[in-house]
Amino acid sequence: MNLKLYNSIAREKQDFQPIDPHNVTMYVCGPTVYNYVHIGNARPAVVFDTLYRVLRAIYPGVTYARNITDIDDKIINKSNDLSIDINKITNKFSDAYFEDMLALNTLEPDVIPYATQHIPDMIQMVETLVEKGHAYPADSQIEADKGNVLFSVPSMSKYGELSKRNLDEQEAGARVEVAGYKQYAGDFVLWKPSTEKEPGWDSPWGRGRPGWHLECSAMIKKHLGETIDIHGGGHDLIFPHHENEIAQSCCANDGKPLANFWMHNGFINIDGEKMSKSLGNFRLVRDLLQQYPGEVLRYVILSSHYRSEQNFSKDLLDSAWRTLDSLYGFIRGVAPIESLLNSSGDGFKALLDDLNTPVAISELYRLAKAVNQAKGDEQIALMQELKGLSDILGLLQQDPEQWFTLARGDNQLSAEQIEHYIQARQQAKQDKDFAKADQIRQQLLDSGVVLEDSREGTQWRRS
RNA sequence: GGCGCUGUAGCAAAGUGGUAAUGCAGUGGACUGCAACUCCGCCAUCGUCGGUUCGAUUCCGACCAGCGCCUCCA
Q1: Cβ pair A42, A100 in contact under 8 A
Q2: Domain boundary pick from A265, A294, A313
Q3: Mean pLDDT (whole number) for A120-143
Q4: CA→C1' distance for A246 and B64 (Å)
Q5: A21 and A170: one domain?
Q6: pLDDT exceeding 70 applies to what percent of chain A?
């Protein structure tokens, strides 16, 4: 029962060995809170939440940290554009983020560090890097450039290990002009000066604010230690973000690796295209939740392997909803029961194989069917196993009855109204007035209500 | 130019050197007053062309098609 994970830095699946089995450490890059998050932001949250659940099932202790970046130029710009206090923006959108993630059935991480609450830690790390010759204050005649502190990429021989990039072979400055105060084109900012109007903190280099990459390095060190077990994030963060994190942490911590395992989820595209502002095709989690239960979004995310690209579309969401309906249908009417994870079952084994959630989900289906067919003790055992697996996946977390009867969308018939119609249809059936009975059924169907007759009576569900 | 990814049934998506899980949709049948639910069954030779092999979708090469990073980005 070994957990295998694809390690981006080794570019292969490896057996996972925690540094300390009693406290497995995982850090995942969280959002910059200047807007509602889109479905792409949700993917790492759901994926690593699932990994978190798997880890907790295996190890006695797991510490999972996911940060909130609440100081950033994008936030500052938004604050300026809207003339709203920066804290109001970050508070609003971090709260919204937690709400959205909760709707996706993600567990709260053990640690949620905010960048602005770790400024001293960051300053200290920059000082260490300067002392060790890995960073330098910008030497510039231009007033606005003074106060920048840069990481010296050439000072780190292993730079580029994660992304397998040789900076000399990159088209430096091909898309962005290289700032004149950089000693080397690939050097990146650790600390940047703030104007009077911008938020800033006093530092040995004047009033300023941290560079993005620095935040994660400092917060990881503070909360999880110098070397952690797993560091996760989106595929696009490999370069430069994670590469730079490695450079900062490794150089500040006497060459110790930042993370033993690097994991990256693939992108979510919309109808075949990358989400971008220019295309205007962002899908906000918040908006999607107006139309779909959070579990449907989670199901879609888990229905493909986390490393592959995923194409979001309405069809995908609708079909996922039908699938979940089917799954819930199997367990509807089965008494609620305690979950019991079968750690040697095929579903959990699939998860141990680099988080193969599609296979685990297929096992969910197999179990649900079996539950539906079994009776007595066998059914109870299967139901426990099903629950155990679905708890790890964070799916089927609702009461089936509620799943089918809660309103889906606006202007829906109330449960009372539906019951009323069912009574009327029952009467019509008893009177052998099938035309009327069918008419009522069709009427309900048109309102999104499906009737299911059985010997015990008529059951209804929304579709 | 550098680094890297993908191409499996209508759609979605696993997987393996020995003729391809699963779900949605479709379809034939059982059940039903008729349906729905459920149950039984059907529905792909894995981008193209070569190579290695007794045998390749799975390994290697070329090609075609799509895509990502190299700037902020999940």
Answers
A1: yes
A2: A265
A3: 92
A4: 39
A5: yes
A6: 97
Q: What would you measure as the largest C-alpha separation in chain A, in angstroms?
A: 95
Same domain, A244 and A183: yes
Nucleotide with the nearest C1' to A435 CA: B34
User: CA–CA separation, A47 vs A30, rounded Å?
Assistant: 13
The reply to whether the CB atom of residue A175 sits less than 7 A from any atom in nucleic acid chain B is yes
- State the complex-level ipTM: 0.95
Residues A319, A360, single domain; the answer is: yes
Whether the predicted pLDDT of A410 surpasses 90: no
Confidence check: pLDDT of A396 > 60: yes
Q: List the A152 CA – B20 C1' distance (angstroms).
A: 52
Structural domain of A143: 4-265
Q: What is the C-alpha separation between A451 and A454, in angstroms, rounded?
A: 10
Which chain B nucleotides are covered by protein, judged by CB under 7 A?
1-6, 11-15, 21-25, 32-39, 67-74
On whether both A227 and A346 belong to a single domain, the answer is no
pLDDT digits (tens, 9 = 90+) for A6-56: 999 999 999 999 999 999 999 999 999 999 999 999 999 999 999 999 999
Q: Same structural domain for residues A332 and A456? A: no
- The domain total for chain A is 3
Secondary structure (DSSP) of A21-42: TTSEEEEE---BSSS--BHHHH
**pLDDT surpassing 60 at residue A127:** yes
Q: Residues A64, A163: one domain?
A: yes
The H-or-E segment that residue A65 falls in is: strand A62-66
User: CA–C1' span, A6 to B2, in Å?
Assistant: 24
Whether A343 and A392 map to the same domain: the answer is yes
